[in-house]
Amino acid sequence: MSQAQAFRRRGIVEGFFGPLWSMAHRGRILEAGAARGMNTYLYAPKDDPYHRERWRIPYPKEQWQALARLIRQAQKRNVDFVYGFHPGKGLSFSADQPVRILLAKAQRFYDAGVRTFAVLFDDIPSRLAHAADRKQFKNSLARAEGTWLADIVARQPAAWTDVEWWICPSFYTPDPLLARIFGAFEPNFIETLAEHLPSNVACCWTGPSVVSQKITLAHVRKIAKLVEHPLILWDNYPVNDLSMRDELHIGPLRHRDPRLPQAAYGYLNNPLLQEELSFIPLATCFDYAASPGSYNPENSWNDIISRRFGSGARAHWWTIRNFCDKTEQSKKTKRPLRFSRDELKCLQAAAAYLSDHRKKKWAAEIKPWQKQIQQTLSNPASPVKIPLPLS
């Protein structure tokens, strides 16, 4: 394969915890993403109650009408709208009713033109909760998840010959963080899942970590060999939910091997919570996914900054980006922030720029970090207290 080949699936997984994006913003993202090669949108926001906590309940009329409009917008842009179910919390895998409920809910989406569905088991306990499940699936969550998808595929309407199914398993990275939060996973989870999963079901994977600093071809090839199914990379960049909510990832996507399409079917990015600011890093993600071999992080970043804010603002946005990167590093290393005299001069200019543009839509989103900059300028020698962003 050529290094410049694009991923067959590329776009967004809206899969974060936190306040929901507005439908208007989702429409703008579809437009901007499609212009940069995006062809897939996985709808899976954790705090949409009808996606996760109340997944068994059909969307009420108003919410459904809004979703249906979004689906039509995606179709107009030639973007495949993928609906994600998150049924894992408290699920009885051996019960008959949940499969019937899921397929009935999926029928409504199918009738609206949706042809790809994802069943997501991320971020649930690592062991089966029900005695009947432990008995039927030999105490294996991996076997239960794979078998459950097989049951869904077997019982879907015969007319659904054009439907594609995806899964996000509970074990979606070897990062020890997963086991610390959700409990130790059974050995050979991925191999067991693959054994029971229908061959055409694609599998999501976040990389070597929940939030991967880099993703190499060697790593993805290893996982692809284990899973033996089409592999979709769910990249948790530039997302900033949960413990990252005081971070702002507005730099370009970096350290993703340009050869990943050789081993991965799809590549989706979990975005920032901040609507307006999300356009910055996502543009670089779209550029990478569309042409990994020719992707240049800085060129891509400079292009989106110039398009959205004007080329004259690039220096200010680079200073803001650098400040956010340094505060994040300070948080991780627990070392105080230090800035050179030249950096402080640039921060002064950036602070004036932010003040001059305080009426822009993005101004409220960046305000917590603007306050950090002002605090730094007021007392460069003191540690910066990082306030939480506005919800």
Description:
By secondary structure, this protein is of the alpha/beta class. It folds into two domains: 9-295, TIM Barrel, CATH 3.20.20.80; 310-378, no CATH class. It is built from 13 helices and eight strands. It has helices at residues 23-35, 61-76, 97-111, 131-136, 141-155, 176-182, 189-196, 217-227, 275-290, 297-309, 314-333, 341-356, 363-378, and strands at 9-14, 40-43, 80-85, 116-120, 164-168, 202-205, 231-235, 266-269. It has an eight-stranded parallel β-barrel with strand order 1-2-3-4-5-6-7-8, surrounded by four helices. Helix 1 packs parallel to helix 2 (61-76), helix 5 packs parallel to helix 7 (189-196) and helix 9 packs antiparallel against helix 10 (297-309). The longest helix has 20 residues, at 314-333. It is globular, with a radius of gyration of 22 Å. Mean pLDDT is 95; it is low at 386-391.
- Using the alpha-carbon principal axes, give the shape: globular
Order of helices and strands: EHEHEHEHHEHHEHEEHHHHH
* CATH homologous superfamily classification of the largest domain: Glycosidases
* Total helical segments: 13
Q: Give a short account of the largest sheet.
A: 8 strands, parallel, barrel
Number-wise, the strands total 8
Poorly predicted tracts of residues: 386-391
Q: How do the strands line up in the largest sheet? A: 1-2-3-4-5-6-7-8
Output the CATH class name of the largest domain: Alpha Beta
Radius of gyration, whole Å: 22 Å
- What would the CATH topology of the largest domain be? TIM Barrel
Query: How helix-rich are the residues, as a percent range?
Result: 40-55%
CATH architecture label of the largest domain: Alpha-Beta Barrel
Mean pLDDT: 95
Distance between the termini: 44 Å
Structural class: alpha/beta
Count of the domains: 2
Strand content: 5-15%
